[in-house]
Amino acid sequence: MTLTQWMPFIVLMPLILSGVSALLPGKTAPWLLAFATATASTILAALVWLGLGPEPMRYAFGNWAPPMGIEYRVDHANALVALIVSGIASLALLWGKRSADQEIPERQGIFYALFLLALAGLLGITLTGDAFNVFVFLEISSLSTYALVAYGQDRRGLLAAFRYLIMGTIGATFILIGIGFLYMMTGTLNMADLAERIPAVADTNAVRAGFAFIIVGLGLKLALLPLHLWLPNAYAFAPNVITVFLAGTATKVALYVMLRFIYTIFGGDYSFGALPLADIMMVLAVAGMVVGSWVAMFEPNLKRMMAYSSVAQVGYLVLGVALVSIIGLTATFVHLFNHALMKAGLFMALGTVMYRTGSARIEAFYGVGRQMPWTMTAFALLGLSLIGVPATAGFVSKWYLIWGALDAGQVWLVVLILITSLMAVVYIWRVIEAAWFQAPRDQQSPVAEAPKALLIPLWLMVALNIYFGLDTRLSLGAAEQAAQVLLGGF
Amino acid sequence: MAWGIAMSDNKILRIVARFLIPLIMLFALYIQFHGEYSPGGGFQAGVVFAAAWILFVLIFGLDLGLEVIPERAMFVLMVLGVMLYCAVGLLNVAQGGLFLDFSTLLADPKAAQQAGIITVELGIGITVATVVMLIFTMFARRKREQDGTDEDAP
Amino acid sequence: MTVILSYFNYWVVVLLMMIGFYGVIAHGNMDKKLMSLGLFQTSVFIMFISAGKVIGGATPILRDGVALHSNPLPHVLILTAIVVGVATTAVGLALAVRIQEAYGTIEDDLIGDPSHEPEEP
Fold first, then answer.
1. What are the tens digits of pLDDT across the range B42-77?
2. Assigned domain for A448 exists
3. Structural domain count, chain C
4. CATH code assigned at C19
């Protein structure tokens, strides 16, 4: 079998094996299956990414030739996103065994089945070349995510999941409406086909309305500022392993789909030229950066704090898009990659402390620095990466973002990026200060350092963050390739 | 579950249901296996089949319904239905075709398409029927589980 | 008048969509929210189905003497979307049941209100 024939198995493996996982008893067997599956998907995604030529890799399901059948169409942009998603999933699982055992005392077969379904959904969104298929996979991943968020011990997780369900469904339905408009106007659902036929009907209200519905729907999934309300609580009250997984993947995939629609299907000229998308995105991105960082500075629950920080980071990602340049788009892809690494790592660090203290409130972190030095050192290093200190992955993304802003002649954006980075210093410092400079509360019993099963994956994330801060050839090269592919169309 | 007991006491309901349930099931099977000639298929058949079982439970009570098909069996069948679907796809891959390319199954491409779609739809039918039954069961017994009340309590 | 009549189905879609969307936002009761969400989704289904109708076209089944068929693809798409809708409703109701157990109410306003907290077992 050729690599092209193996390619759909990136999605098929988690999809099929989720059923097997649902039947497995106990805790270890389903975890082992989920971890093996995610790792296999990662390896396959890496092979596909390495094996890509200048032409996209295409696979028609059931041998029904597109545009009749559904095809998977992989180029450098979505291969990179698939690699990030599956890679973060395997790292989250590698770390999450002990944490999940503590938080989910009962049988875990269904839990890991849902995890694999969510993974398959996210990977399916990434690889598919069919607009309706995007909606279907979006709902597969979203529905399993709602259930996963509700899996936690905290009853507020139920409310968070319900709110997420309502908003997520509205977003998905908006996307469905948009796809419906496009289908009515063009008679096709295949992305490449849509891209060919849209210019002929581009100047109609139906296509404009479809575009608007799709962008707003994806904005909801992406947690772009005014539509971010579901995110903080969903992240804060989900089981830690799920938070790690979601923080690294869910919003990234939504952003990728948005880019696919903006650049490939509608074309950059239409999205940014005929419609004022860049201005709208710029305002929302800046607002997201400032508001997200601002709220994070005062949030007493550290998981919620990190979630608000994610809202700010989505702002950075969208800012890169709004600059409408190859540098800006490269910055977006670099940040997509780096942010997945650092935010997953930071949530791992928080989860590792929570494994011992059982609480994410800042009071629970008083004095933890001396009791869990390895964990908190990892947190500090990952925090530096989030701030964007040189020699960490975060620096590379900020550097490119600032370069893109200067290139566009918008100095005020540079100032804003620096200000929000300073705000990141403040909220990371709050945790450091609590952990090292506050005496533990009296009623708090001292905690021991976390087990190695949690520490080793955590430090692996630290190592990755520093590695990709020093050696940028891999991440930057991949990001540039992805940006070029998107700007070049199909 | 007061409603289960009350409804099975009603002679009209009981007799009409006994008459209707086999017909509904037969109709489901018709939709299932005639799906490649006329409107129909696994989704619709599965839901209709599950409706027959749900009618049975509404009249005769959940406990009797679960004796017909235990919850664990539903769960396993749900997964097996999906597995049947995937197995056909994987078989096609093993025979050198693309995933779900039925024409590899038999020598005659038309017969192969037919065989493939019937098998796949059977898988869908099993899964949809059991999923609908499972959703119903879980909602129905949730209250009892939480209150810890017994079936026969008034 | 012709504008209303010739686009009648789309007016219905818009009307249903707005009723559903308003309900999702305005209702505090989670069951009602889910019902409104269902209405909202259904309106989109009708939109798709309308788009598939070919005037004068028969049901899309291959048989003798019929040349013009309606487009079956939107029906298939909507079948999938209906299944998604059913799954969403099921997950939403399951969450509502568990919220009722954990908080003693599914009214948004009353959640966290001590008078509705479930008594400790």
1. 889 999 999 999 999 988 888 888 998 999 999 999
2. yes
3. 1
4. 1.10.287.3510
- DSSP E strand boundaries for A57-134: 57-60, 71-74
**Does residue C60 form part of some domain?**
no
Chain A, window 49-68: residues with a beta carbon less than 8 angstroms from a chain B beta carbon: 59-63
What percent of chain A is modeled with pLDDT above 70? 99
Query: Quick check: C33 and A166 CB within 8 A?
Result: yes
What does the pLDDT read at residue A424? Answer: 93
**Reported pTM:** 0.93
Does residue A197 sit within a domain? no
Which residues constitute the domain of residue A489?
276-490
Domains contained in chain A, number: 1
In a domain, A414, yes or no: yes
Q: Is residue C64 part of a domain?
A: no
Nearest chain A alpha carbon to B113: A62
Q: How far is CA A351 from CA A134, A238, A402, B145, in A?
A: 32, 11, 32, 32
Alpha carbon dihedral A293, A297, A299, A301, in 10-degree steps, equals: 100
What is the C-alpha end-to-end distance of chain B, expressed in Å?
Answer: 8
Distance from CA of C64 to the nearest CA of B (A): 13
Query: Domain range holding C18?
Result: 2-53+69-116
Chain B contact set for A20 (CB, 8 A)? 79, 83
Is C58 inside a domain boundary? no
Q: Compute the average pLDDT of residues A273-278.
A: 86
pLDDT for the residue numbered B154: 33
**Given A146, A155, A173, which is nearest C103 (Cβ)?**
A155
- A62 vs chain B: nearest CA distance in angstroms? 4
